[in-house]
Amino acid sequence: MDKRPIGIFDSGLGGLTCVPYLRQALPREKFIYFGDTARTPYGSKDPSTIRAFSAQIAEFLVQHQVKMIVIACNTVSSICLEDLQQRFPQVPIVGIIEPAAQAIADTCVKGSSVAIIGTKVTVKSRVYENLLKELKPELCLHAKACPAFVPLIEEGIIENEIMDLTIKHYLDDFLQESQADTLVLGCTHYPLIRKNIDRLYPDLRIINPSREIVKSVVAQLEEHDLLSPGNSDFENIFYASDLSENFVNMINRIFADENFRVEFRSVDPDARKTPLE
Ligand code: DGL
User: Fold this and answer.
1) Nearest Cα to Cα of residue 154 among 182, 114, 204, 188
2) Would you say residue 87 has pLDDT above 90?
């Protein structure tokens, strides 16, 4: 048993799409979230930059007494999981890609055509393909980077024509050529445009890694005897390196019914310490 909070992080607000599923499965737990909104997007940056940013955030979370770190980001999970596990052996660290690949293997029938969309870094890493080669080699896999989605989502450009056109730009030909029956939302920002995708491609089966990660988090908490008994003095806190309006609105929506705190905090040693007026 352990009352300390669970740390979660992403390059921005995308990781928030995991939070409702985690809260539902783990109602007694408290969460500390860090969104690196000042430096998002990560998905088109050099891996060495992403590794440095991720280590700063993990360090911040460890200093805030988290008992576990959840990497609510496919990009970071695809290239930094082992590095972070080695640097921070004092806490279990859960990535999002392994549980997602397991869900794909468990639910897609032999011969399925599976389209995976994500950031440039995630797609280039081929982590989904490499895991699935082991778990279920009979699937036809196709992957495509969709780098314009994250900046639009961070700006809150979601329920409108610009987003629909961007989705069609990336997916029309890709889905047609791959004859995909299943689409994997391989970036935690993408569930925020799921309604658009459902409307544009109603026959596609969608796999949402932001939901699938929950099983791994619960399993790790159980394995390390870290589940909270409840009545924790800790509070739910959302840190962002830049408090964008969209980030705050999103949290308000998720936590409408409960107490939480939102704070600006930079983890970049060279950055200004307070937000500009
Ligand atoms: N939400 C992230 C992911 O799951 C990162 C997106 C980005 O910053 O480019 O990949």
Assistant:
1) 188
2) yes
C-beta of 182 in contact with ligand 1 (< 6 A): no
User: At residue 229, what is the residue type?
Assistant: P
Q: Which amino acid is at 160?
A: N
Instruction: Please give the span between the terminal C-alpha atoms of the chain, in angstroms, as a whole number.
Output: 43
The string of pLDDT tens digits covering residues 102-143 is 999 999 999 999 999 999 999 999 999 999 999 999 999 999
Q: How far apart (Å, rounded) are the C-alpha atoms in residues 88 and 198?
A: 39
pTM for this structure? 0.94
DSSP notation for 106-146: HHSPTT-EEEEEE-HHHHHHTHHHHHHHHH-TTSEEEEEE-
Phi, psi (5° rounding) for residue 228? -85, 140
> Is residue 271's pLDDT more than 60?
yes
Mutate to test the pocket of ligand 1, among 8, 9, 78, 119 (most ligand atoms within 8 A of CB): 119
> Does any ligand 1 atom lie closer than 6 A to the CB of residue 11?
yes
HSE toward the beta carbon, residue 131, CA cutoff 13 A: 18
Q: Phi and psi (nearest 5°) for 202? A: -65, -20
| Residue 193: closest CA among 256, 242, 148, 254 | 148
- How do residues 201-223 score in pLDDT, each as one tens digit? 999 999 999 999 999 999 999 99
pLDDT above 90 coverage of the chain, percent = 82
* Under 8 Å between Cβ of 50 and 74: no
DSSP 206: E
Distance CA 249, CA 37 (A): 14
